[in-house]
Structures are given as C-alpha cells and as structure tokens.
Write a structure and sequence with these properties.
The structure holds two protein chains of two kinds. By secondary structure, chain A is mostly helical. Chain A is built from eleven helices and no strands. Chains A and B meet through helix 8 and helix 9 of A and strand 5 and helix 3 of B. Bound molecules: adenosine-5'-triphosphate (ATP) and magnesium ion.
C-alpha cells in the first residue's frame, strides 16, 4: 500500500503496441484473465472448506456480501469514486500549472523544484496524520491527502515535458509573432498533454488505492472506511467483498484513462520496439 | 532605391554578429528588392543561418542595422506580424496538428476565423500539390518527408507574407523530390511576386532558382555577387563559368553534394 511511485519513472513514456497486434492480443489476454480469475476463485473456495469463515469465507458467501453491498452500501462506492476523480482532476490542473510555471518562469524554477522534491519525499502516511490534525471535515481530509501526494507528480512530469519542447518548434511558432497566450494555447498546452496523460495513467491506480487508505485512516465514509468497519467486526467476507469492488473500481478508472489516452493522442505515431 | 519602381524589402548595413569572441557574420551589407529571389550561398558554418535569424528578428546584431520593410525586426518584433514567414531545413510541423491545421497555424495566430483558416489552408495545400480530403487530414507522421516539406512551405505562404525566408528547405529531400519542389516553389513565388531569401550551399540550386546570388565566405562576408536572368540560365557556358567562380569564392564547394 505504501509503495511510492518514483516520479522519474512515472514520466517514462511506454511505447503503445501496434494496432493490429493489439487486436490479436485482446482475445488471448481476455482468456488468460478468465482462467486466472477462475483459479483464484477455486483456490479460495477450496480453502474455505478447511478454514473457519473468519479466515476464508466461501465464494457463495462472498458473492452474497458483494450483492448486499451493491444494494445497500453503494453510496460508499460512489463517494470513493467521486473523491478520487475530483482530487485527481484538481491535482492534474494545479500540478500541471505549477509544472508550466517552473518551465517558463526561469527564476521560479529552482525554488518550486526544491519544494516539489521535498514534498515527494514526505511519506504518504505522514500526510494522512497531518490531515487528521489539520482538518475537521472528512472531505477536506481525503482531498488534502490526495492532492498533496498527486500534485508533485504532475508538476515534475509537466516540467520535464516543457524542458523537452523542441526549440525548432518554438522558433517556427515565434516567426508568426504570436501573443504569449497563443504560444501557450497552440504550442505548450498540446505539447504537455501526453505528459499529463502519462502521469495520470501511472498514478491513477496508486491514487485509487491511496483514496481507500486515506478513508480507512481518516474518515468513516467511503470504501476504505467500510472495509475498516468490516475488519473491526471480524467480517471477513465483507473485507474480501470490498477488496474485490476496489479492484473493479481501480481497473475501471484505469480503463477510462486508457480510453482518454487513445482519443487524445491519436496524432502520435505508433511505435513498436523490438 | 536603386530603381524607380523597386523598393528595398531587406536592408543589412555593416552587420556584425559575434557568438562570444567568435564572429559568425562580419561587415555584411546587402539589400533585397521587392519581388526578388535572392540566394545566400556559402559553405557550412559560413553564417548563412545567423544572417537569416537576424532578418527573422530572433537574433540581435552585435553591430550594424537590419531593416525589414523599414522596421527593425528584432526591436520591433511584433510590428512585422504577418509580413514574413519562414520554412526550414527540417519541416518543423506540429505533430498534433493535421496537415491543414499546420498550414493554418499562421492564420490562426493572425486571428482569422476557423472557416477561413480551413479554406485557405486547403487552397495552399493544393498549390503545393497535396490534394484530397484524406491527405489534408493526415498527421505529420503519416506523410512522407517530401510531403511534410510541402506542408511546411504551404504554412509559410499561407499567411500571404511579403517576405518568404527559406533555410535549406530542399536539402534533405532526395534529388528528384527536391528538384520538383524547387521548380514548383520558384514558379509559385514568381507568379505571386513575393520577395524571397533562400539559403543553400548547393551552387546549382542557387543558379537555378535565384535572380541574384550572394556568395558568403566564412565568417559571413560578401565574397561575390552574381545576377542571373532566364537567358543566362539556359546558357551552359555561362553557367559553367559562374559555377567555377562561385566555388572559388566560397572556398570550394561542399563535398558529397553532387548527388
Ligand atoms: N547560437 C549559437 N551559439 C554559438 N555559436 C553559434 C550559434 N549559432 C551559430 N554559431 C556559430 O556561428 C557560425 C555560423 O553558423 P551558421 O549556423 O550561421 O552557419 P550556416 O552558414 O548556416 O551553416 P550550415 O550550412 O551548416 O547551416 C558557426 O561557426 C557556428 O558555430
Ligand atoms: Mg544553417
């Protein structure tokens, strides 16, 4: 849970697979996923025959629990998703702006960079404890934790992106004598979009897990908090049920980001590295 | 003014440009008249690009004055808005913009509405022989090198500039593509009566395209000036003699450029 993503590697641009190969792989991957899910379910079921219910409940019991959650506790799922999306959206905008300022306003760069680097060095758990001391409201706590963790990733990656902006392109745009705003809108903004997307792609899973963790530690609503409650009540099928739902939410948001990436980066050449 | 009807679009007067202690351009003076195509010819490192950068207004001369349309292109940078356009050796297309959107870049900066941008961009792509809805909508990485260079030329011409500057725009293309593009371009520029300064280090290209050739020796200093007319251009003896004279003034033609 506390594994931190290295912001340097988070910036690494993965080469997308070629379109044809992607289609071929899809069926194979789907099949493999189904096999693995079936195997996990079977292992849990087998274990449940020999273990007491508070160690490993049966698949049927867990399934029942998930249905109950979806029927009665779904508001916590919605809460968590909204918290996650709102915090990511806010961090995306704020962090990217900071990154742009670092890249453009030369004198500000070393100061903001030092601040950002120090911030990324503070453990997530410390931010959670600070949040509990500093904020009364639950929403503020979760929002603060996520924003303070996510903003530096955006800032650093967008900053790196701006440094990678080719002077050739800057020069050719400059020859048309644009305003500062036009330079931002026509050159800088489209140039940093891939960096913003790559950052989102690499942090979104981490952010989803961090949201649940922040809820567990600091508030009493949302998926993380409900999971903590289930644990207090020694309700193992509840813990497993919430875990499965968290996995689904996590994969869901990742799929949304992947879709956004495909749409927004359709201008990029598809590279395949052998 | 040298002639009654000719107006100097570019005037360089005793211009020096140093990079540190290193002189890239020394005591360079020349004029380019309205509607003229002038080639700056010189070996690599002669200071051709440096001179062009000063005309573009992105570089300040160390000494001397540069005037474009009577304005100081560096100090009065914004005043030349829409008056000049540049195409470079590499196409420098914005990868996230489709071909027509790249051509429309200048128009967008000048504040034309989207409809006009699109119509004019497509017209200009047609002028450089890129036609068909599918080609117009292609992203730079989906175009061949020759097509990208055509898009880049269309982008420069699309703002209807009085002055077109080319820095080795044809040199990275294969022989046949380069020849075709040079012919198309010169024909177009002459028809529109644009003023054009083009940089090249190939003597034959300069003789083929320009009305006047300014040969620069390193650091950029005028070594020779050659006037070319259509009649002279078809005189192979004259061409041969000029080729030899220019090569001597340049201090030898760059090797490996015969292809
Ligand atoms: N920004 C710069 N900083 C330092 N030196 C520079 C810079 N730009 C050019 N020079 C130097 O000035 C001299 C002239 O360079 P320039 O680019 O104008 O040559 P060029 O004639 O365009 O050559 P090429 O045909 O290779 O493009 C070279 O010695 C080069 O190293
Ligand atoms: Mg050059």
């Amino acid at each position: 849970m506390s594994t931190r993503i290295d912001p340097e590697t988070a910036a690494g641009l993965e080469p997308p697979a070629p379109a044809g190969a992607e289609r071929n792989y899809f069926k194979r991957d789907l099949f493999a996923s189904i096999v693995i899910i079936a195997l996990i379910a079977f292992a849990m079921e087998a274990w449940s025959w020999v273990a007491p219910v508070y160690i490993m409940p049966s698949v049927v019991l867990t399934g029942d629990e998930i249905l109950t959650i979806l029927g009665e506790d779904y508001i916590h799922i919605v809460t968590t998703i909204l918290r996650l999306l709102f915090a990511v959206a806010f961090s995306l905008v704020t962090g990217s702006l900071i990154g742009v300022i670092m890249g453009i306003v030369r004198p500000a760069e070393p100061f903001i960079k030092a601040l950002v680097v120090i911030f990324t060095g503070v453990p997530a758990l410390s931010w959670m404890l600070f949040a509990i001391f500093w904020f009364r409201g639950t929403e503020e706590r979760v929002f603060f934790i996520l924003a303070v963790i996510l903003i530096p990733f955006y800032a650093l990656n967008v900053y790196d992106g701006i440094k990678a902006l080719s002077t050739d392109l800057v020069e050719v745009v400059e020859t048309f004598r644009p305003s500062r705003w036009q330079v931002f809108r026509l050159l800088i903004l489209p140039h940093i979009v891939p960096y913003i997307l790559m950052t989102t792609k690499s942090i979104i899973g981490y952010a989803a897990r961090m949201t649940a963790f922040a809820e567990l530690v600091s508030v009493n609503t949302g998926m993380g908090a409900r999971m903590g409650l289930a644990q207090d009540e020694l309700n193992m099928q509840g813990v497993i049920g919430w875990t499965i739902l968290l996995v689904i939410v996590n994969l869901g948001v990742q799929a949304i980001v992947a879709w956004a990436e495909k749409r927004l980066l359709k201008w990029r050449p598809e590279v395949s590295v052998r | 003014m040298t002639a009654a009807d000719a107006r100097a679009v570019i005037e360089l007067d005793r211009v020096d440009r140093y990079f540190g202690a290193h002189p890239a351009v020394l005591d360079l003076s020349f004029r380019v008249m309205e509607g003229e195509i002038v080639a700056l010819l010189g070996r690599t490192g002669a200071g051709k690009s440096t001179a062009l950068h000063m005309i573009m207004g992105v570089l300040e001369p160390t000494r001397g004055t540069v005037r474009v349309e009577g304005l100081d292109p560096y100090a009065q940078f914004k005043a030349l808005r829409g008056k000049l356009a540049v195409s470079f050796q590499n196409d420098r297309l914005l990868p996230w913009r489709a071909a027509w959107e790249n051509v429309a870049l200048g128009l967008e900066i000048l504040g034309f509405d989207r409809e006009t941008q699109r119509d004019r961009a497509i017209q200009w792509l047609e002028n450089v022989k890129i036609v068909g809805e599918e080609n117009v909508r292609k992203y730079p990485h989906e175009l061949s090198g020759g097509m990208r260079q055509r898009v880049s030329l269309a982008r420069a011409l699309c703002v209807d500039p009085e002055l077109v500057l080319l820095d080795e725009s044809f040199s990275q293309l294969d022989h046949v593509t380069s020849k075709a593009l040079r012919t198309d371009f010169t024909e177009l520029v002459r028809r529109l009566g644009k003023t054009c300064v083009l940089i090249t280090h190939r003597i034959d290209d300069a003789l083929e395209m320009a009305d006047r050739i300014l040969v620069l020796a390193a650091p950029a200093k005028l070594a020779l000036e050659v006037r070319v007319t259509p009649a002279l251009r078809s005189d192979s003896d004259w061409l041969e003699a000029q080729h030899a004279a220019i090569a001597a003034a340049m201090g030898g033609e760059d090797e490996g450029e015969a292809a």
